[in-house]
Design a protein that fits this description.
The protein is α+β, with helices and mostly antiparallel strands. The chain contains 11 helices and 13 strands. 40% of the residues lie in helices and 25% in strands. The strands form 3 sheets. It has a 6-stranded antiparallel β-sheet with strand order 2-1-6-5-4-3. Strands 8-9-7-12-13 form a 5-stranded mixed β-sheet, sandwiched between helices.
Length: 303
Amino acid sequence: MPELEDPEIFRSVLDDLLTGIYLVDRNRRIRFWNTGAENITGYLRQDVVGRFLRDHLLSTGSETKDVDSDPTDPISLVFRDGKPSTSDISILHKKGYRVPIVLRTIPIRNARGLVVGAAESFDMNRSASDWTRRQAGVADFGCLDSATGVPSQGFMQTQFREHLTRFSEHSLSFGVLIIQVDHMEYFRSSRGPGVVPTILRVVAQGVENCLRPDDLVGCWFENKFLALLTGCRGSDVGRVANRVRKMVGQSEIEWWGDNFSITSSLGAGASRPGDTLELLLERVEGSLRESIAAGGNCVTVLT
């Protein structure tokens, strides 16, 4: 059908897909940014088209890298080898937290077969539907903290007890993380108390995004967060905690025209036979104190 050969039809289809799609030229300047990319990142097309913002958004390692000079960056590989690739990376949301994605990169060739640009598509690397249903259920019962968007402290205390009961009766192991932002008093005094809720929301959403749908993170005492890792054994809890620490470190806080990064200290532990709420909390909080004493931006798992 001739009408299906109209290039604007193809552009319209690409634009309306829920999958994030964007195109860059050989200079890495973004030329197209669809609705899916807007929804996943929070950046509207007018924010990014014509700019080099891609290099600021993406991170493939433990720290945000200059992907323009990174030979392992998918765009660099496409321009060099002309081959498609798939990567598990994180992308920076406009609100400052990181979102894990699966990124697919393919070359764009002209009529002579030369690579003149690249197309990248991406989807969130987690089960968003399960998470959305759970959050909606928590909100319906008034147990969602409005400032951070994650479950309240009271809800987390109840969930903690339920995890312990399941472990006691059915030996279903679980891990516990306590997450504290480093140097919060410095940020409060230097930037004003209003910055604290912004920092906490970015941290909460970043941690939520890098956990599995069966895991749970919520508010805890004194501007801390508690994460419960379902089915996580002692050998794995440190690995998960380090993933959380890295994700927080890749966040970016925007405050009155200024951007700054943050780090976190984590205490971690796993359920053991004979544990009570008090014993397990004492072990994890002791781990957190060790991380803070070590200067922050680290994970401790006391054995």
